[in-house]
Design brief:
Blueprint: E1 2-7, H1 13-27, E2 31-36, H2 45-57, E3 76-84, E4 87-88, H3 90-98, E5 106-112, H4 120-128, E6 135-139, H5 140-144, H6 146-161
Parallel strand pairs: 1-2, 1-3, 3-5, 5-6
Antiparallel strand pairs: 3-4
Helix pairs in contact: 1-6, 3-4
């Protein structure tokens, strides 16, 4: 099985989760390519953070660099995003709308502070025009509990490879 783990990360939490997911898939025999989405709009500093929140709140996509990987060449595409304003990031939404629809199958994961995933999975599923095989929401607390984190990531990987 070939899997693409593609994600957007501003603080590094989603990048870390993507690495754990890629590792769990590889441990189950999958050939994995990981790629980070690049938002062409600056999300740095206070102004970037404000624009990010507004874009997420109003469901806007953004301009992103085209992925290097050919999405159609993978058995499953795993899309990851932090939760901003109870929704996925504009970069993840843009990927899903533009390239994600070419995927044979998809799965979604998100990282979040202390809230629930809110409408993140619903918004990304709508952008993909497809229901994901599996979803995984990891809170800031989850990312600190190594034992529980490993078990949750492994269960997510199992849903994609079984």
């Amino acid at each position: 099985m070939k899997a693409l783990v593609i994600f957007y990360s501003r603080s590094g939490n989603t990048r870390r989760a993507a690495g754990l997911i890629a590792g769990a898939l590889e441990a189950r025999g999958a050939e994995v390519v990981s790629e980070e989405l690049v938002d062409k709009r600056s999300r740095e500093g206070f102004g970037g953070l404000l624009r990010a929140g507004l874009d997420a709140t109003f469901g806007r996509a953004t301009a992103i660099q085209a992925p290097k990987a050919d999405v159609a060449g993978f058995d499953v595409v795993v899309v990851g995003t932090p939760v901003w304003a109870w929704a996925g990031t504009p970069a993840a939404r843009a990927f899903c709308r533009t390239w994600g629809r070419r995927a044979k199958r998809t799965a979604l994961f998100c990282t979040l502070m202390n809230s629930t995933p809110g409408g993140t999975f619903k918004a990304l599923s709508s952008a993909l025009q497809d229901e994901p095989l599996a979803t995984l929401a990891l809170s800031h607390r989850d990312l600190k509990d190594e034992a529980a984190l490993g078990a949750r990531v492994e269960a997510f990987a199992a849903q994609l490879t079984d």
